[in-house]
């Protein structure tokens, strides 16, 4: 069982529009409503693969109720921590060329009592978990060290932790030694305080975060593929995605694929790549099923092209 923790979940509505015209009236060609948040998406992808998953979520108000109902309908077990605030609702505008414009609400403020209850609930639910995926931004009311506290408690209970967050929350959690972290290139650049222009730059940044406490670094590089740096060495992989429709949740699908395949080594990296490539070819934040995957098209190597320039260089 894979347990996910999403401190700031959302209800996500995606509109497909012919083009984005500022100040105009846009007529959607399609729309969908999905439960959202990084950990939520990981659980959705895990469930779509036929693996058991539980999502621990602080939820409030009508959006929170609908979010839980949508998750249960997708085969996700939901453990709700009730909060006084209302769960946020986000909007995404997807254009035919894959360009995505997102409007993310700030979300509710979590009280100290609610924050403590959330930690206790994770501990209670973690006994049967092979992995705990802690994902996303922290809502108002949770200090940057909250994830570090969760990692420490989970390790004390014998659980393995995958952490997907950024900024101060990521840096604060590294001394607690999460088993794997999953930054993208921009988040890596922010963490090390310098721009990343080549794959070699990404490797050095990942090694630096490992020296600060991360067990392994699974770096998402968009169209340039993914990089895994761990005690087993560095592995780089790519997977073609000829028809990009939406990249919402693609990184979360990748993390799900990585954990489903054991969370270590080139086999897990290959699963991450297959899931991510499948996800970007689906509408909104739809998660891939096994029939969507093309594992035979994934390429993995330890002969890293360190001079490879990133298609979208990351700034610090």
Structural domains: how many? 1
**Mind telling me the CATH class?**
Alpha Beta
What's the pLDDT, averaged over the residues? Answer: 95
CATH architecture: 3-Layer(aba) Sandwich
Per CATH, the superfamily is Ribokinase
How large is the share of residues in beta strands? 25-35%
Biggest pleated-sheet summary: 6 strands, parallel
Name the strands of the widest sheet in spatial order. 5-4-1-8-9-10
**Low-confidence sequence ranges:** none
Number of DSSP helical runs = 9
Portion of residues within helices: 25-40%
Assembly level: single chain
Sum up the overall morphology in one term. globular
Your description of this structure?
One of its GO terms (molecular function) is 1-phosphofructokinase activity. Belongs to the carbohydrate kinase PfkB family. This is 1-phosphofructokinase. It holds the Pfam family PfkB. Keywords: ATP-binding, Kinase, Nucleotide-binding, Transferase. By secondary structure, the chain is α/β, with parallel strands linked by helices. The protein has a single domain, classed as Ribokinase (UDP-N-acetylmuramoyl-L-alanine:D-glutamate ligase), CATH 3.40.1190.20. The protein is built from 9 helices and 16 strands. It has helices at residues 38-48, 61-73, 112-125, 146-156, 167-173, 185-192, 199-211, 250-260, 265-279; strands spanning 2-5, 10-16, 30-36, 53-59, 77-82, 88-94, 100-103, 131-135, 161-164, 180-181, 196-198, 217-220, 226-230, 233-238, 299-301, 309-314. The chain has a 6-stranded parallel β-sheet, with helices on both faces. A 4-stranded mixed β-sheet has the order 3-2-6-7. Helix 1 crosses helix 8 and helix 8 runs antiparallel to helix 9. The longest helix has 15 residues, at 265-279. It is globular and about 50 Å long.
